[in-house]
Design goal:
- It is a single chain.
- The protein has seven helices and ten strands.
- The protein is α+β, with helices and mostly antiparallel strands.
- The chain is rod-shaped and about 155 Å long.
Length: 358
């Protein structure tokens, strides 16, 4: 029998028959109803239960233990539960702080990267973490920064190329007028006519460039290449004839429409013809071919050509020797239209422009 546990058998009237317990127990007497009862009696926590028999109730069993021991066990249990609760709460707080730092650190990195992007730093790199969502957001931010940097770089290059094109034509017009003023016997009417023609060309260039900026991203464009090339031949015929040179345009019977902007194609041809006039010799030929899924426009002249290994599409300042930065602009315009501009042959030089069919 466990220490402190007292067991006694009582009659239904509460009198002790045998065992350990008080001589009379009200708790045992109350079990005459056939149910189990419990109560604190004489400093003990007691439980009584009736003993069934064939003749009815044969008695009552009373089991008791000191109440102080029960109270101490309850107190100890509560203390243990309180201690466990403190440990659980502390662990929860620790895990919450760790999780909050784990979540906050990547977000702080993303915030700093976004601020750097807003300040113009397009080389940002968001550090990787073990948080998948933050890593995905960081990769998206890096991709956005890279695209913005590329767009800004193209815009800067485009602005530099455009200013070069405009400055070259404006300089030619001014030099022609100054030359006419410096020579007393100059035919000033011819000089004025030439200046007006160059001014018209300059206005066309400006209008085309403005149109290109407004048409950026336009869809479903169809361009009649033959009609545009006829327009270009009429524009260049007189100036080339005055220099003793000619322009031959070879068009097939029918050409499919191409998906390109008229302003872009006009500027590309302008650059190629300018290049042929400035650096080439003899007749300038423009050959057009239908490739099925695209149209090829080739511009050639009878000049000495281009040295082996020279990168004619590299951007260079206007005072450097070579083909200037016009070809770089022409290539960027071709790529923006979904086409390609390549140097197909070095000598005599042949530039090939490939445009997709609409």
């Amino acid at each position: 029998m466990p220490t402190g546990l007292r067991v006694g058998v009582y009659a239904t009237d509460g009198a002790l028959l045998f065992g350990d317990g008080p001589r009379r127990s009200n708790l045992a007497a109350g079990s005459h109803d056939g149910h189990v009862h419990e109560a604190v009696e004489d400093g003990f926590m007691a439980v009584s239960a009736p003993i069934p028999s064939d003749e009815g109730r044969g008695g009552v069993v009373r089991v008791a233990t000191p109440y102080d021991e029960v109270a101490d066990r309850v107190h100890d249990t509560w203390l243990l539960m309180a201690g466990l609760a403190v440990i659980v709460v502390s662990l929860a707080i620790a895990f919450a702080l760790r999780a909050s730092r784990r979540l906050a650190a990547p977000l702080e990195h993303l915030t700093r990267a976004a601020q750097a992007l807003g300040a113009g730093d397009f080389s940002i790199r968001a550090p990787r973490s073990d948080l998948r969502e933050a890593d995905v957001a960081g990769l998206a931010l890096e991709s956005t920064a890279q695209r913005l940097g590329e767009v800004l770089e193209r815009e800067r290059a485009f602005s530099a190329d455009v200013s070069h094109q405009l400055r070259t034509r404006l300089t030619g017009m001014l030099l022609g007028l100054e030359s006419a003023l410096a020579r007393p016997d100059a035919q000033r009417e011819d000089a004025i006519r030439t200046a007006l023609a160059r001014g018209e060309q300059l206005r066309t260039v400006i209008e085309d460039l403005v149109r290109l900026t407004r048409e950026h991203g336009a869809q479903d464009r169809c361009l009649d290449v033959g009609a545009l090339l006829e327009e270009v031949r009429e524009t260049w015929y007189g100036g080339l004839a005055a220099q003793g040179r000619s322009l031959a345009l070879n068009l097939p019977g029918e050409l499919p429409a191409v998906a390109a902007s008229p302003a872009a194609l006009r500027q590309i041809l302008q650059v190629l013809l300018d290049n042929a006039v400035a650096h080439g010799k003899g007749e300038i030929t423009v050959d057009v071919a239908d490739l099925g899924d695209g149209v090829a426009i080739e511009v050639a002249d009878q000049g000495a050509g281009i040295p082996e290994g020279a990168d004619v599409f590299a951007r260079r300042s206007g005072d450097e020797e070579g083909h200037g930065i016009g070809l770089a602009l022409a290539r960027s315009l071709a790529e923006a239209e979904g086409g390609r501009l390549v140097l197909r042959r070095l000598s005599p030089p042949v530039f090939s422009l490939l445009l997709p069919v609409a």
